[in-house]
Design a protein that fits this description.
With about 350 residues, the protein is mainly beta. It has a single domain, classed as Tachylectin-2, Chain A (5 Propeller), CATH 2.115.10.20. It is built from one helix and 23 strands.
Length: about 350
């Protein structure tokens, strides 16, 4: 189960006890509105190669009543920052759709009122949610890759969809079928159960599309299920290579730890001086399936990665992300990384949202 699904399910259950209701689409408008809250700065408790403060730039309820903002994807376009992010919407519990926000500084945001994509047709791979958007500009077009969710009586199925836009605002699906989907054999394949949470970047004149996949753990050791980072590439933005596994959990996050780490998810990538920097979250399975840290790795070819010795941040480093910290997206500016990410504390959902921090280059 991906971060978004687990988070929304947990949050919706809690919201029902707190008397909250999901966002209504009727509350959306076509006009942009601006944040009215003041960003909250929080000092991080441990030392690492990072800035000592994180600022929450989108909070619970900003722009839309009871909105739980998640899954940011940020790019710089025409001298302004553009964020693609998701929020719960409509009368269906757990239904999530993508929105677009703009900013002059990456801190204060204006949000468009309407979802960028609606749900897919009944029975389609994205019939129940459109989540984790990742947007890049390639060959004059904007490409959005996203997680499509379709629910069945037994389980939720997660695959990756693809949409294209001329302006980054009006989008059209490339196909009603998934671009990438699991093999359906989690007992045999590394990508047998879920293929989801895309993170796209332009590298070496191609789209490098990273993603989270779950399935059989290599070597067959326990726990049997493992989450890894996979990759496909495209030179034209339409036809993609076969799925390849490129990064699995290492010695920093052993399965023997009390948390029982099971792997990585929700990658985001940025290219600096010919090297590809990958940001991702770390999954633990106890006491429950949760994303507990953000990590960084670097590669010269986009396939073989060297991981940092320490995480960027752990969930307990911030007062508002004690349950999960997840979904990093980065830009490199003025010699530093700017990192946006999501998080929440199930005991205090009013402080859930999207944060921002600056990082030194490892």
């Amino acid at each position: 189960m991906t971060s978004t699904i687990r988070t929304i399910i947990s949050i919706v259950v809690s919201m029902s006890f707190l008397g909250f209701s999901p966002v209504s689409e009727s509350a959306s408008t076509s006009k942009e509105v601006t944040t009215t809250h003041k960003p909250v700065s929080v000092k991080i408790s441990s030392k690492s190669l990072r800035h000592d403060k994180a600022t929450r730039v989108l909070s619970f309820g900003d722009f839309k009543t009871n909105a739980l903002w998640n899954d940011p994807s940020v790019l710089k376009d025409k001298n302004r920052y553009v964020m693609y992010a998701t929020a719960n919407i409509g009368g269906k519990f757990g239904t999530v759709l993508p929105f677009r926000a703009t900013s002059k500084d990456g801190i204060s945001w204006k949000m468009g009122g309407k979802p960028l994509l609606q749900l897919g047709k009944k029975g389609a791979f994205d019939a129940d949610s459109v989540e984790t958007p990742s947007v890049v500009k390639f060959n004059g077009k904007y490409h959005m890759f996203y997680t499509g969710v379709v629910k069945s009586p037994k389980k939720q199925h997660l695959s990756i969809g693809h949409a294209i836009s001329d302006d980054g605002i009006k989008w059209k699906r490339v196909s009603n079928k998934a671009l990438l989907k699991p093999t359906g054999n989690p007992g045999r394949d590394w990508n047998g159960y879920h293929v989801a949470e895309p993170g796209a970047v332009v590298f070496k004149n191609k789209i490098y599309l990273y993603f989270h996949a779950s399935g059989r753990r290599e070597g067959g050791d326990g726990p049997g299920n493992q989450s890894v980072i996979g990759l496909v590439t495209s030179s034209d933005g339409i036809k993609f290579s076969k799925m390849k596994r490129v990064l699995a959990q290492g010695q920093l996050y052993p399965t023997s730890a009390p948390e029982v780490y099971v792997g990585y998810s929700t990658p985001g990538a940025e290219v600096v001086s010919g090297k590809l920097h990958l940001f991702y979250d770390v999954i633990a399975s106890k006491p429950g399936w949760e994303q507990v840290a953000l990590h960084h790795a670097v590669s010269a070819d986009g396939v073989t990665f060297k991981e940092d010795a320490k995480p960027i941040i752990r969930r307990n480093d911030l007062s508002w992300s004690k349950t999960e910290v997840r979904a990093p997206t980065a830009l490199f500016e003025k010699g530093r990384f700017r990192l946006w990410f999501a998080g929440h504390d199930i005991k205090n959902l009013t402080k859930a949202g999207i944060g921002h921090m600056e990082l030194n280059v490892p």
